[in-house]
Specification:
Strand content of chain A: 15-25%
Distance between the termini of chain A: 27 Å
Distance between the termini of chain B: 62 Å
CATH architecture of the largest domain in chain B: 3-Layer(aba) Sandwich
Radius of gyration of chain B: 22 Å
CATH topology of the largest domain in chain B: Dna Topoisomerase Vi A Subunit, Chain: A, domain 2
Order of helices and strands of chain A: EEEHEEEEEHHHHEHHEEHHEHEHEE
Shape of chain B: globular
Number of strands of chain A: 15
Largest sheet of chain B: 4 strands, parallel
Number of helices of chain B: 7
Order of helices and strands of chain B: HHHEEEHEHEHEH
Structural class of chain A: alpha/beta
Helix content of chain B: 40-55%
Number of strands of chain B: 6
Helix content of chain A: 40-55%
Number of domains of chain B: 2
Largest sheet of chain A: 6 strands, antiparallel
Strand order of the largest sheet of chain B: 4-3-5-6
CATH class of the largest domain in chain B: Alpha Beta
Oligomer: heterodimer
Largest interface: A-B, 21 and 20 residues
Radius of gyration of chain A: 23 Å
């Protein structure tokens, strides 16, 4: 997919904006606070119907206004005919329900829109995926799987629902000093059936991602360091049934489901050590970028269309060599439309001129296109 | 909304507590009642009070009933060995509407859901076991919602039957593609389940 036009009204620091994008590389430059990230967030809004950065819709309205609107014209990148555009619009007015429409037809359920256009965003805060808890890493992979596999999403929702029921039950048992094995078993077998499916699908995505990831990391780092990416699951060593049985007493004491695929983690290693501890900031960044680019390729294959690639301020903490490698990758034929933001336009342009790539440069200052 | 009369605003308040009724509809209903003859309104109120005060639950199946035993349980032509286990009265009505069921019912009053504080003790599960122990029942048809909670409740009842070594056949409603629908509009979960539990062609 690619986005051809973007119109904004009262969105964040943009009173109004109309812009036509290049079908390949788009670079967006401006000073801090000019609105570079906000422009990427508007594109994110059209794909996911919400902001990447904050949960509240009303926070995205330009100061002293009471609504915002984001409109975009999308087209399949395999389809050269611009007349086949799909118009997406997201509008929000204070005190009203957010409205999302596709070719002027309003969605009954906003969530039905998600997945219309796949998107991968790489931004400075991503480093939390490495430095933060396992929840961040699970979220990254679960989001990717949910975007391509509805069965995964449904199993995941069922698993989470079962887990909250089971936890509520354990709490009641403790309060009333009772225990009913038959009741616990009822939840266990539901956790097992949805949990096993989640486990198998996570192993599948690992197998699909790993070779692409290793290739990208090698290109980005110049191929000197050995990196690995694993899926650490309680189910690697024992069956879910055994796992639940083994932890039953502990669950009763803790009054919650202590073990299961909800606690699994994705391990990132460099030279056989955790990346979190041993990796330099540059190495961590390269690892993340390689992983996200691999996710881009995975989504592309599964969805049979190029996801949009948004690179927000990634030049922070990467050396020129790695940046050149990254630009070489994303301007290649494996990637579709790309958006890159940076404070320094000249640096970026000089690197792109060398690559003889077709690109367009948008200069921004305080919510206006210069 | 501000009303010139407290009597009106109290009535609107009461009506808007009903499911599916907002403030505007409540006002419409109140104004309608205001225009009716007083006898009709008195009759309306008393009917509802009478309903709430005198309604009984069948002591056998716990369905709503006017007497001690409901009309379905006391119907001699019903097969007493076949019991359909449902959540609520509404499910009884739905199955009765098929006009194809000749057995009797057992109304659980819901499904097990610890999050809402509903355990087996809050449902008519022990009374179901008493009925089974009295010996007449040979088959239980589990007609609960196809949700995680419904499935857990079926699992629980079945497990307890095994534990108490009660010899009853347990069956479940078939799950799959509905009649008259187009295959392309069936959701993937239902369709994959229907494929997995496909039937020989008759």
């Amino acid at each position: 997919m690619r986005i051809e036009k973007l119109n904004l009204a009262n969105f964040k620091n943009y009173p109004e904006l109309m812009v036509d994008f290049n079908k390949g590389i788009n670079i967006i430059t401006g000073l801090n606070g000019a609105g570079k990230t906000n422009l990427l967030d508007a594109i994110y809004y059209l794909c996911f119907t919400k902001s990447y950065y904050q949960n509240s819709d009303s926070q995205n309205i330009l100061h002293e206004n009471n609504y915002f609107r984001v409109e975009g014209a999308f087209c399949k990148d395999t389809d050269p005919d611009a007349a086949q555009n799909t118009a997406i619009s997201v509008a929000f007015m204070k005190g009203k329900k957010k409205q999302v429409d596709k070719n002027k037809v309003v969605y009954d359920k906003i969530s039905d829109h998600i997945g219309f256009c796949p998107l991968v965003l790489i931004e400075p805060d991503d480093v939390q995926i490495i430095k933060g808890g396992s929840k961040e890493r699970r979220k990254l992979m679960d989001t990717a799987l949910s975007q391509v596999d509805r069965e995964y999403l449904l199993a995941y929702m069922k698993y989470e629902r079962t887990r909250s029921q089971r936890n509520a039950l354990l709490k009641q048992f403790a309060e009333r000093r009772t225990f009913d094995e038959n009741l616990i078993l009822g939840y266990d077998q539901q956790l097992i059936s949805s949990g096993n499916l989640i486990y198998e699908k996570r192993k599948t995505i690992l197998a699909a991602l790993n070779p692409i990831f290793l290739d990208f990391y090698e290109i980005l780092s110049g191929g000197k360091e050995k990196v690995e990416f694993h899926y650490n699951s309680v189910l690697n060593d024992l069956s879910f049934e055994e796992c639940l049985l083994k932890n039953r007493e502990k669950d009763r004491i803790m009054q919650r489901t202590t073990a299961g695929i909800h606690g699994d983690d994705w391990a990132f290693e460099i030279k056989d050590h955790p990346l979190k501890k041993l990796g330099s900031q540059g190495q961590q960044k390269s690892f993340l970028i390689a992983l996200k680019l691999a996710l881009h390729q995975y989504l592309k294959k599964e969805r049979n269309t190029n996801p949009l690639l948004l690179l927000d301020d990634i030049f922070d903490k990467l050396d020129v060599e790695r940046i050149e490698m990254l630009l070489k990758l994303v301007t290649g034929e494996d990637f579709g439309q790309v958006f890159i933001t940076d404070t320094d336009g000249e640096r970026l342009e000089s690197l792109l001129v060398n690559r003889k790539t077709d690109y367009q440069h948008f200069k921004i200052n305080s919510g206006k296109l210069l | 909304m501000e009303f010139p009369s407290k009597l009106i605003s109290d009535s609107v308040e009461v009506f808007s507590k009903l499911p599916g009724i907002g403030k505007k509809t409540a006002l419409r209903l109140v104004l309608h009642l205001l225009n009716q003859p007083i006898e009709d309104v008195r009759d309306f109120g008393q009917t509802i009070i009478r309903m709430r005060e005198s309604i009984k639950y069948c002591k056998k199946c716990h369905n709503i009933s006017d007497g001690e035993v409901c009309s379905i349980c006391s119907n001699r032509s019903r097969q007493k060995q076949l019991v359909c286990v449902v959540e609520t009265l509404r499910d009884v009505l739905a199955i009765e509407n098929t006009q194809n069921y000749r057995g009797i019912y057992h109304v659980l009053g819901g499904v097990i859901s610890p999050l809402e504080g509903v355990g087996p003790e809050k449902l008519q599960i022990s009374s179901l076991f008493e009925r089974i122990q009295s010996g007449e029942i040979t088959e239980l048809i589990m007609a609960l919602s196809p949700t995680m909670e419904g499935d857990t409740t079926v699992f629980y009842i079945n497990k307890k039957l095994q534990e108490e070594q009660l010899d009853v056949k347990v069956t479940m409603l078939a799950r799959g593609v509905s009649f008259g629908g187009e295959l392309q509009y069936v959701d993937e979960v239902t369709l994959s389940r229907a494929l997995a539990t496909r039937l020989p062609y008759e």
